[in-house]
Write a structure and sequence with these properties.
about 375 residues, 6 strands, binds zinc ion, Zinc Finger, Delta Prime, domain 3
Length: about 375
Amino acid sequence: MAFDQFLGNERVVAALRRMLQRGRVPHAMLFCGPRGIGRYTLAVMFAQAANCERMEDDFCGECATCLAIGKLRQPEPLIEQGLAERGESPDTATVERVPLILETHPDVWALVPDPVRRNRPVARPMLRMGQLRAAQRAAYFQPVAKRRIFILDSAETMRRDYSNIFLKILEEPPETATFILVAPRPEDLLPTIRSRAVTFRFGPVESQLMDEFLKERTELKAPERQLAAQLTSGSPGAALRINLEESARVRGEVVRLLELGVEGKSWSGVLEAVEQLWKSESDRFENVLELFYSALTDLLEFSCGFKGRIPRNPDLQGRLERLGRKLGPEQVRKMMESLDRLSAGLRRNINRQLSLDAAVLSWVNIRPDSLGGYAGRRQGDR
Ligand SMILES: [Zn+2]
């Protein structure tokens, strides 16, 4: 496995290869894009290429160094192993003192959000102070091979006050170390970190490549492959994992909430629907937010009267089109803004269900003719 086998995002791959050829590797890079698009995989490949014993135009993927680093591409067993070594139900002090670090070669570390304990995971796994401090110290060690590389997966889960540890390294970077931060969007990180990192944005993998990939790796039929590619916006990893039936069910619920909110008929109906969605999906709240964004993006296009484009939710097109006819683009934008606020609040550990209630209820007010209904109802309730 080498760079030429990486699926899609050819420009990013070419830029990384050029940097290596010229020996001009930055101290910090930011890999941004949706989950499953290959950001982490490419980070591991970069670490292999930076240290390969037989590097020429591409890394060999076969030398002892390439093989050792390549094991990071399957992080799950390494996470299990790390948690088992730390012992069951560790307290906070132990979690910080024995940080979860994935290391299959002394020069390359992967830091992933610490779930603390697999069986009873914490509500929101995050990168912890202990992990960052360990990386900070290790960055100044001389590499055994050529370059020390630290991959911070889901860097957006790093608490903002911890980010300062990071800034200190980036202000006086060790010559032989590179940090690769993997996050959905640059805005998910502090501007001071962003400005010191070279940012690479990963875009969707084109549909032809996606189809070939899914054909090779799954049993899906052609229309299912197409749907999986569309629903995951051209993200190969996400398309491999998607459960199409379950996805149809949850997206159906999301659209029902939009319908209820926009029609503004029944408050208790809206709250009940949020409750239902919450019960089934509370452990994957970020996913639910993404589904709302995806449905609202379709809605925005329909409300603008765009025709002929393939929507993100092709199986819900009829319902979304009907909704789109009832709303103007400005109203849909307002709905998106309420989601943006919710999504920003997630970092501050807000109460998620209450915030989702509030966001959905705020949509009822978005249609001018439903305003009166809301005011009347509230007075009636008192
Ligand atoms: Zn090699």
